Structures are given as C-alpha cells and as structure tokens.
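in:
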C-alpha cells in the first residue's frame, strides 16, 4: 500500500536549499518495524509502500523509487539472485539491506552484488531514515557529475559515466554497480594514489571501520575482470599500506618507481622485471592477508 503524504518535516536537501520528497518501498514482513518506520516517513512527507513479497524487476522500475529498503530474509534462498538481478537492471536505484544478524561473508556478498548499505536488525528506524537520506544525496551528486562528464579512455578501457558502463575495445565490461563506481572513482584520480579510507568513504558515504577489507575485495574482483578482458594491460596498481592507483600500463612495460619500503624485501631489483609481476606478488599478499 502507498501511504498518504503529510506536511514535510525534513527530507533530503535539494540544490536550492529546500527539501525534496522521496519515494520509498519497504520489502519486509516485520509489522512493528514497518509501522514505526512508516510513521517516521509520513512525518517527512515521503511516499512509501510496503511489499510483502518479491516483485519483478520491471514492476519495481515502474514505481520510480528513490530507494528500496529490503529484508533479505523475506526472499529466502533466492535472495542473492534476486538482489543481483535487481542491481544489474536498475543501477541508479538506491538499495539498503535491513535484515537480521549476518556473517561478514554475507554482508560483503550483498554489497558486492550492488547493495548500497547494510543495516543489522534490531535497529532504530531513525538510523534507516538517515542511511536512506545519505545514499540519496550521494546518488544525486554522482548523477549530476555523470551528466556533465566526458568519456575517460585508458589503454583499451573506455569509461562512460553517462551510460554507467565501461568498455574494453568496444565490448561492454560486465560490472556490478559497485564495481563500476569503483573504476569510475579510481580513474577520476588521474594517476594519483587513492587511500583505502578515501575510497570507502566516497563509495559508502561514511568512515571505514578498522579492519574492514571491503575495498580490497572489490578491487580484487575488478582487477580480475580487467585482466581477463584486457590481458596485455595493467590498470589497478597496489601501494601497500596506502591504497590504489589507476593507470594503464602495458604488461611488459617498465616498472614505476616505488618507495623502497613498498617493495617486498625478498624481491631484489633483478627479480622484479615488470609491473605485472609486482602487482601479482602484491595481490597474493592481499589474498593471504584477507583469507579470500
């Protein structure tokens, strides 16, 4: 059902300094949580509806939502497939997973598939409201920047922010929404090293928790896809203890200079023949460190 619209309390700030009403769908069966959250959204003047069961992607598209709040437990075993299909078909839709206790692996999987945020129940509805407001603000800023951006080319890769797509030699590179946002962000650095904390805050919108390896997981997946599609080039370069740099360099090209402390001590100058070998060693180090 769709709730009525009441006078606005506070929405999401618009470019003109006012507030903008949002359209939210909540896929959940927790009646108490839905009731409290619904009252808060009424006060904000948000349109909202409750979905008691999964609906097809085209039906969600027709709702023209600002964001979807979903409890994956409602979907059962098909939850991951449904989430991946939804995120792939509607990359501009903000998705907040609000579900019961979960493992780190489950949360990482959900974020990797394209969810913008993950909240663990029990939680306060006010936190859900704040997370939704935050992701909508971030998406609006990115949408404005994308409409004004020009294609970015590096090696065999072309990044089209206006189309939310990346191409390798003219062929579309199959990326999740989060992976595209990551390559878009790294490429915008124009060759400078982006720290892990900066990457996390700009993609997720809040500070990275100490020990969180989400950035490393997403970089590893993106790097694998790029190397498979464009094997003669290296695009993402690791700087140990700092972050990542995006630059197109041929596999057999010269090795860029790195501070001595960033080069593993057991690799002498004669052993590191090119950037590909160095990145390979770095990637193995990351995988062993994360247990991936």
């Amino acid at each position: 059902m769709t709730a009525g619209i009441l006078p606005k309390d506070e929405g999401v700030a618009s470019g003109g300094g006012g507030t903008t009403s949002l359209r939210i769908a909540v896929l959940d069966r927790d009646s108490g949580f839905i009731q409290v959250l619904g009252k808060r959204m009424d006060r904000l003047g948000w349109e909202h509806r409750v979905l008691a069961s999964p609906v097809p992607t085209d039906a969600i598209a027709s709702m023209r939502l600002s964001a979807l709040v979903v409890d994956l437990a409602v979907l059962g075993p098909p939850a991951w497939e449904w989430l991946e299909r939804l995120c792939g078909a509607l990359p501009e839709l903000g998705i907040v997973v609000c579900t019961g206790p979960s493992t780190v692996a489950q949360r990482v999987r959900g974020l990797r598939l394209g969810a913008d945020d993950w909240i663990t129940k029990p939680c306060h509805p006010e936190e859900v409201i704040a997370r939704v407001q935050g992701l909508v603000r971030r998406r609006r800023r990115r949408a404005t920047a994308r409409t004004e951006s020009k294609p970015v080319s590096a090696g065999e890769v072309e990044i089209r922010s206006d189309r939310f797509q990346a191409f390798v030699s003219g062929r579309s590179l199959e990326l999740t929404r989060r992976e595209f946002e990551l390559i878009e962000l790294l490429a915008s650095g124009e060759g400078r090293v982006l720290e892990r904390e900066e990457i996390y805050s700009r993609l997720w919108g809040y500070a990275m928790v100490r020990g969180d390896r989400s950035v490393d997981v997403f970089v590893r997946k993106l790097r694998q896809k790029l190397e498979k599609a464009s094997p003669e080039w290296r695009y993402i370069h690791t700087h140990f203890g700092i972050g990542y740099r995006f630059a197109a360099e041929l596999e057999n090209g010269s090795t860029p200079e790195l501070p001595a402390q960033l080069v593993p001590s057991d690799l002498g100058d004669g052993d590191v023949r090119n950037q590909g070998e160095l990145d390979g060693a770095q990637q193995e180090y990351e995988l062993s460190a994360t247990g991936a």
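note: The chain has two domains: 12-146, 151-290.
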